């Protein structure tokens, strides 16, 4: 999918996103993944980077814990919705360009509902590695590939395709959950997720 097309979808959806994805889409990954991070971190104070933060659903649990959250998204209308929440900082940029945040700044990075659109996972994962402190956590949803949907318009993966990419980017797998992702709002296909909790075990290489 072209960037322009993705931005248009989320720009049009922005005002109704929360209601639509929760009710009709049955999307719960945003909550599952943030709770897994909180369980793994066991920290009183933490700095979180929410990539593709959208309207901010993926950070609600972090706000409850009073964590400091920076959100990044490239759709201005989604950022506008996120501004209603307690983000420390919101940045409007494409995730596939160098991230405009400091290196080794964050205890965890969360990326939920976004891998569907990412063209170069390795270069994004390496960039995420740079932004994490040593030993910190990266939580990500990966849409599962089904052979019968091989022509799907969104990116999807077999485990054996994506797991070596995590390793190459300096991450170790701590946990992998498999769960219902969402029901497409247009179309009938159900999307299933692998929800990975990863740990940074070495710095990203060039
Ligand atoms: C399905 S929403 C997920 C929002 C939020 N993480 C959640 O779980 O509710 C996907 C978001 O990713 C953003 N997005 C997709 N591709 C992006 C890119 N290359 N750079 C920045 N944001 C992107 C879209 O604008 C949209 O807000």
Query: Which CATH architecture?
Result: 3-Layer(aba) Sandwich
- Unique ligands: S-adenosylmethionine
Alpha-carbon distance between the two ends: 27 Å
Derived structural class: alpha/beta
Structural account:
The chain has 206 residues and is α/β, with parallel strands linked by helices. The chain has a single domain, classed as Rossmann fold (3-Layer(aba) Sandwich), CATH 3.40.50. The protein is 31% helix and 28% strand. It contains seven helices and seven strands, in the order αααβαβαββαβαββ. A seven-stranded mixed β-sheet has the order 3-2-1-4-5-7-6, with helices on both faces. S-adenosylmethionine binds at residues 6, 10, 30, 52-54, 57-58, 73-75, 78, 94-96, 112-114, 117.
Please render the helix and strand layout as text.
Blueprint lengths: L2 H11 L3 H7 L5 H13 L5 E5 L8 H5 L3 E6 L2 H7 L6 E4 L13 E6 L9 H11 E12 L15 H10 L2 E13 L6 E11 L6
Parallel strand pairs: 1-2, 1-4, 2-3, 4-5
Antiparallel strand pairs: 5-7, 6-7
S-adenosylmethionine binds next to helix 1.
Main attributes of the structure:
Rossmann fold, alpha/beta, 206 residues, binds S-adenosylmethionine
What does this entry show, briefly?
The protein is of the alpha/beta class.
């Amino acid at each position: 999918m072209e960037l322009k097309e993705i931005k248009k979808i989320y720009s049009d959806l922005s005002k109704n996103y929360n209601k639509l994805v929760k009710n009709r889409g049955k999307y719960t990954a945003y909550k599952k993944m943030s709770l897994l991070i909180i369980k793994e971190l066991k920290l009183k104070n933490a700095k979180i980077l929410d990539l593709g933060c959208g309207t901010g659903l993926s950070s609600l649990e972090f706000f409850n814990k009073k964590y400091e959250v920076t959100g990044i998204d490239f759709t201005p209308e989604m950022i506008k919705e996120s501004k209603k929440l307690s983000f420390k900082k919101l940045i409007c940029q494409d995730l596939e360009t160098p991230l405009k945040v400091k290196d080794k700044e964050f205890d965890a990075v969360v990326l939920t509902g976004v891998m569907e659109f990412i063209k170069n996972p390795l270069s994004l994962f390496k960039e995420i590695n740079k932004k994490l402190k040593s030993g910190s956590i990266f939580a990500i949803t990966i849409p599962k590939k089904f052979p019968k949907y091989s022509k799907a318009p969104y990116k999807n993966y077999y485990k054996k395709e994506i797991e070596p990419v995590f390793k190459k980017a300096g991450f170790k797998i701590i946990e992998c959950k498999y769960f219902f992702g969402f029901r497409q709002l247009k179309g009938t296909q159900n999307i299933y997720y692998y929800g990975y909790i990863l740990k940074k075990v070495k710095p990203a290489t060039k």
